[in-house]
Amino acid sequence: MSPMIVPLGHVFVLAGVIFSMGLLCLVAHRNLIMTLVGVEVMMNASLIVFVAASLRWRLMEGQAFMLFILAVAAAEVSVGLALVFSLYRRTGSIDPDTYDILKW
Amino acid sequence: MTPYAAIFYLLSGIILAATAMAVTRRKPVHAVLYLVVAFLGTAALFFLLGAPFLAAFMVIIYVGAIMVLFLFVIMLFQPSLRELGRLPQWGPAALLGVAFLAVAVVMVLKDPGSGMVLQGAGVKPRDFGHFVFDRYWLAVEIVSILLLVALVAVIQVGRKRGEDSAGAEEE
Amino acid sequence: MTSWLQDPSLAATLATWLPFISFLLILIFTREHRRLSGGIAVAAVAGSLAGALFLLIRHWGDAQPIQYSARWVVAGSLSIPFGYLLDAVSLTMLFLVAGISLLVQVYSLGYMAGDSGFSRYFAFQSLFAWAMMNLSISLATLQLYAFWELVGLSSYLLIGFWYERFSATQAGKKAFVMTRLGDVSFFIGLLLVLLHIGNSGIPEMNSPEAVARMDPGLLTLAALLIFGGIVGKSAQFPLMTWLPDAMEGPTPVSALLHSATMVAAGVFLFARLFPFLSRSADAMTVFLAIGTVSMLLASTMAIVSRDIKRVWAYSTISQLGLMIMGLAAGSLFAGGFHLTTHAAFKALLFLCSGVWVHRYGTNDVYEISGRGGRRLKIPMVCLVIAAAALSGLPPFSGFFSKEIILAALAGLKNPLWLAAGLIGAFLTSYYAFRLVFIILSPREEVREESGHHEGDAAYWVMGVPLLILAGVTLMLGFAVTPLREFLAGSTVHPGGNDGWLFYISTGLAALGVGVAWFEFGRRAAPRIGFVERIAPLRELFAQRWYLDHLYQWFVHIVIDRVLSRGCTRNEDRVINEAIDGFCRFTLDSGRVFAFLQSGKVRYNLMVMFGVLVLVALYFLFA
Q1: Which chain B residues are closer than 8 Å to C609 by Cβ?
Q2: B contacts of A21 (beta carbons < 8 Å)
Q3: Strand duo C66-75 + A4-7: pairing
Q4: What pLDDT, in 10s, does the model give residues C135-168?
Q5: Predicted complex ipTM
Q6: The CATH number of A8-91 is which of 3.40.50.620, 1.10.287.3510, 1.10.390.10, 1.20.1250.20?
Q7: Could you give the CA distance from residue C611 to residue C609 in angstroms, rounded to a whole number?
């Protein structure tokens, strides 16, 4: 009676593609804001995985976990943005390549 | 192809397109806006996957609060920084991304359980609420403490130099 | 009770270790009390002499040597014992050493009176006596080597006794280093023997079975190496220049160590290992050659020397060479008997000279004669007696022993050795009587205060040993036959051509005396020797045939410039550079790899995700 949707693999592939795009955004941009955007995209992908898995096994834990991930994402984004802003105030730049005092 | 499958592919197309645009924009504001679209698509996907309550959460919390926060912080920067050059040095990153994607796809496709077709279902908000507070109330409390800690951290990190705790607070 | 007394161990131990106790006592307790120190030392040596005499008399006619050995080191198939061995040679040597030590120490009581290092002197004398006596009765070669080194040490201490004088310290160092060179070769030879025979006991070494285990080439090599030690210790060519310099020490030291006992240790070793060493005919020829060369060289050096002690030092080298010639010619008795007689008359010569040195403060013989040396009767008479013995004039003891050596040399195939021996005899009597006549007939008589101090205790303290030694010199010659039986066992060397040899050698000795009288003794004598007229020859002899110069050159040029600079350069340029280069390589390679640390976050993130991909691959395929 319950309708069929798609094979699980397809959902996972979707999530994988989104994740790799987020990865690209994370490492390729010279802007810290974009780095955080990439993190958000990756989290989006993980949320999709969790919900799909919860549907596959018919357990509500997946959805509960999605809630927690959301909360954590909120906390992390706020702290991350605060840090970026503080860095900007200190050095006047948000290009991560300029923060290289740990260079040999 | 059931109609649900068609909806799924449509939604996934939207999400992918929006994410791709978000990743390749030069201006962060544009990127964030495209990201909003992607999240909205994700919310719809959740509806399809049987979690309407969570879809609402996505829209309210993720898009409504977090992306707005992004925009606020971006506005705090000088306008010169809101412009970026062409995406520099995207070679190694692209390589990495492609490699990662290839591996992920292969992994998924090789797994025998991935052929299983999802069956539609729905979770009522009331049941979901009962479930969370019945089984995972401790996690909820901890998450709330986490948010408190994040709040304190943001306040502390965001202070201007030279301010003391008794002075006026900046957000 | 009687058996305990008759046990030789007690006497042997007591005899040889009493001086050590004296050494310790003096060094630790009685350094401030001079007379007590002197008394302790003399008493100890007197005790040793008593023990030695007792042993000598008791074991005079023993067929078998008495030995006592305890195991010291046993390692696998090697065995190194220690203990004592009392056979004819060692008993004679023990008695000789004890006797002359006692006489010299009594003499020193007078000679060294008033010196600030009086106690130290007697401590070192006791040390030497202990070491030398133990050397004489050592059972094993390594034990002997230990005491050999100790004797060298006490020689160094006594030569440099007046250490405030730079020349004395230099002489002590030179003696030690030169003998050390000989000792190194000695030790290597000993080790060779030990490794092949497996036991370092002397009786084992001398036995025929042991020798059969070593092949002849190795035997010759070992013999030559051991002889290296003898060359060093007995001041033979080429390690001979330390002995004249050793005269920097006090005269009693020269009398005891560097004429009678320590330098005789080399000859004693030869006698000890005579069965072993004589098995290699080639080695014996080499020994003969070295002995001859030393004898002749030293005699030439003695002819032109003005320093009275130096003359006797050269004479010692020469006489030791003669002893070695006798031993190397195959006659144990020849060398051994001459060792004994030489000890007596050479010590006498030194002690007499010491009286003059002590009284006039100078070593120069012309000065001694000029200040009236001949008026001291006891030294003068004893000097003449001893010089006659040295020259080999009958009926003194030296005559008998020299005859025997010459007879042994005559028994060799090559007449060259005998000729060398005869020339040596002529030169010996010439230089001995040159000195005698210089002192006997001075040119200018400087009126010294003629106090003979006959009533002085010091006079008699120094005089009595002289008289005793003179008596020995006179008498010892007549003890040939019993001594021959004692030392050489029952083998008696055939007389052969004793007749004409006797006349020739005595004639040559008399000729030497005559020439010396002609040049020095007559009233109108020119007082210049026939060699001294030839300036280049005189220079050659006076500079000790430029041996010292050779050694200096060798040390400075070869060792210092070539070897040590080469080693230093090697260390700086090769070893240090290699290590520095290694460090530099490490630093540079670190610098090369440091470019990976760009400090950029993005690259770190990329690497992180790259690793993640690899881990995923692993889980995919594993």
Answers
A1: 96, 100
A2: 16, 19-20, 23, 97
A3: unpaired
A4: 888 888 888 899 999 999 988 998 888 888 888 8
A5: 0.89
A6: 1.10.287.3510
A7: 5
